[in-house]
Amino acid sequence: MDQPAPIPQPRLRDRLTIPVLAFGGILMAVMQTVVVPLLPDLPRLTGASPATVSWTVTATLLSGAVLTPVLGRAGDMYGKRRVLTGALALMTVGSVMCALSSDIGVLITARALQGAAASVVPLSISILRDELPPERRGSAVALMSSTVGIGAALGLPLAALVVQYADWHTMFWLTSVLGAAGVTATWWAVRESPLREPGRFDVLGALGLAAGLVCLLLGVSQGGTWGWGSARVLGLFLGAVVVLALWCRQQLRTARPLVDLRLVARPRVGLSHVAALLTGFAFYANSLVTAQLVQAPKATGYGLGLSIVATGLCLLPGGVTMLLFSPLSARISAARGPRITLALGAAVIACGYALRIADSRDLWMIILGATVVATGTTLAYSALPTLILRAVPAAQTASANGVNVLMRTIGQAVSSAAVAAVLVHHSSPLGGVPVPSLHGYLLAFGMAGTVALAACAAALTIPGDGPAPGTRRTRSGTPGARDEAMEGA
How far is Cα 129 from Cα 193, in angstroms, rounded to an integer? Predict the structure, then answer.
């Protein structure tokens, strides 16, 4: 009697695929946050003005927003591992440049290069869809989505400790070493996906999207500094409208567009993008406001006067929570569908802001409220890519998830501008320096909570979930081929 063939065991490289991709996502988020503790000292260290120094953050935001959908499309066409490795390499090169120089022009250029790493998460999620069996895919995608919050929570205290006790260049040497390790591990452990979408790359579409997004996000990020009614800001917004309108027309007429707008127009995809924008707005206010609130001087009557290191430690429980709750998100999505998980996550975010409004004076309540918001963010961010994976063809997953991440980025940029506007409007002088009032912080919490409820409503309007990709069955009841076609098309 013939013996059954042994089940092949996965190679070491295959077992390390998920940890390596998660490491890349965490590293990307760390790289985006490490410069924050440096901002107050960079004018002195570089001899540049505070307005110029702020471009070390703005440059990363702009390049990340532009490159995420572009690199996602390139991954679908030319190979996801190849493009992912290139994005991590650009991030590492930028870190080395920061470690070697104190010139503000070099630092801004380097930070713009690091913005390419914003594409790491959508590319990694697309790889997970291609390579993992359906039963492992949900939890892996949930973990990958959570790495954004985990890395941000780890990056702030880590950078603050290095800045406080060592030369600031040491921080970038450390991230350079980690980046080089990420590039090497990705190339060694991650398989190249066999799925491709052939065609010529839409160069004109990429340039048009870049121009439109730069106008839009530059106006949003600099509106508070330049004045919302200034000619520069109004001109940028007008330029964004005109350029993006022409870009949409060009995309609809192109055989192989950078972004398939007809696909975006489908309710399951378009509403998922709207929910991503609103969730990004709601999530980002938590980090912005919490950091300022706990560092406010005690003389304000509400501030705790904490150091930047202590502030980072206040946000750390939220990062740990995101790591612990990502498997729960996958289980809820498997049982109830990702749109329910997304709606639940947005509702939990709103509850977290309700706690912040109820008490923002006691440290334990501040940490509790921030952690509840982080928990809701985990549920929501883990559900968003699953919604996209179930709604688009397998050959377009990287580009579609890139657009979804772009919408989150726009939401975060708008959140930053809106929170800044509220806090500036509700400030009073303290020692000759304007300081936001507690009422201003509470208004910011209320605004973010309201947007979270809007995200919950948007999630509930998304058409019902279809079967998970890869779980279709043939007439005989056996599993069908891996999902190559449009779900629900």
Answer: 10
202 contacts: CB under 8 Å, gap ≥ 6: 73, 251, 254, 256, 257, 258
pLDDT score recorded for residue 475: 33
- CB of 314 within 8 A of CB of 360? no
Q: What are the backbone angles phi and psi of residue 479, rounded to the nearest 5°? A: -60, 140
Q: How far apart are CA 121 and CA 399, in angstroms?
A: 11
Helix ranges (DSSP H) in 134-230: 134-165, 168-189, 203-226
What backbone torsions phi and psi does residue 21 show, to the nearest 5 degrees? -65, -40
pLDDT digits (tens, 9 = 90+) for 139-159: 888 888 888 878 887 887 888
Type of residue at 211: A
pLDDT band at residue 354 under the 50/70/90 scheme: very high
CA dist., res. 75 & res. 190, Å (int):
14
Mean pLDDT score across all residues of the chain? 86
| Residues 6+ away with beta carbon under 8 Å from 383 | 329, 333, 338, 339, 341, 342, 345, 459
| Cβ neighbour number for residue 400 with a 10 Å cutoff | 29
